[in-house]
Amino acid sequence: MLKQAMANILTSEETEELYGAFDQIGSIIILRIPDALLSKKKLIGEILLEKVKTAKSIFYQSSPVEGDYRIRQLELLAGEDNMETEYREHGCRFKVDVEKTFFSPRLATERLRIADLVKDGEIIINMFGGVGMFSIVAAKKKKCHVYNIDINPHAAKLCSENVILNKLKGTVESIEGDATDIIEKKLVGSGDRVLMLLPERSDEFLDIAIKALKQKGVLHYYCHIHSDKKNQVSEAVTNHFLSVVKFKSEILGAKIVRPVGPRFYQAVVDAVISR
Fold it and tell me: Do the beta carbons of residue 42 and residue 83 sit within 8 Å?
């Protein structure tokens, strides 16, 4: 859509340079713009605001997602200077602050997949839960209890507010703090299912994630992985997981969650861990 919107504004060469996709979160659009077109970023933002009637703000992402809080630098290109919005997904409502918390609408399909796997009565530990997206979608569908842990106080606060916004079959408990510390203090051996939604640091937290599981439980291990061939990603991520896990593991499945760069993917392994 972005390339179509800019077709009569930019040259064909410039249009080809543009990234074709952007993220819309409620009334906010976040763009990545190639260095070669940064001089025209305001124009691009203004045109896009005019074309997308549901948008009120257009922001340029000027840094990668980074740091313990997993946040990014954003620059207003057009519209209202407001970083807060409401986002709806799978029958749930979420308050989001795109400046102070991590959030990706591109994980919507994965959130629903996990919710469908959850069984009534499960205890779930979401180690890096953010504003509660995975946790609330799961508790909307199933009578489970989810511990939503996040070190970012803004994310933990918004998760608590989002729980109140939604009518849930299950329950979600928002916990602010370091996932390792929280698990060590109160959640060792308590989880039927553990989510590890920090793909860039998955191996670092693998041992504590397994420690959070009951004697036998399901682990959803997310990581970033290179592969020259897309159809070999599942095998590659499975082999990597088996090379780093220290306990008996039954692989339930492995798949691409989304591409994150050329020959670079976010992938997930679902595994039953027996301790």
Answer: no
Which among 254, 252, 125, 101 is positioned nearest to 192, based on CA atoms? 125
Domains of the chain: 2-82 (3.30.300.110), 102-274 (3.40.50.150)
Written as six digits, the tokens of 121 are 């009565």
Q: Which of 106, 128, 134 is nearest to 259 (CA)?
A: 106
Q: What is the pLDDT of residue 10?
A: 84
CB 227 within 8 A of CB 263: yes
> Cβ atoms within 10 A of the Cβ of 62, count?
13
Residue with tokens 């088996």: 242
What's the pLDDT tens digit per position in 194-213?
A: 999 999 999 999 999 999 99
Counting beta carbons within 10 angstroms of the beta carbon of residue 246, is it exposed (0 to 12), middle (13 to 18) or buried (19 or more)? exposed
DSSP string, 173-223: EEEES-HHHHIIIIITT-EEEEEE--GGGHHHHHHHHHHHEEEEEEEEEEE
pLDDT single digits (tens) 93-117:
999 999 999 989 999 999 999 999 9
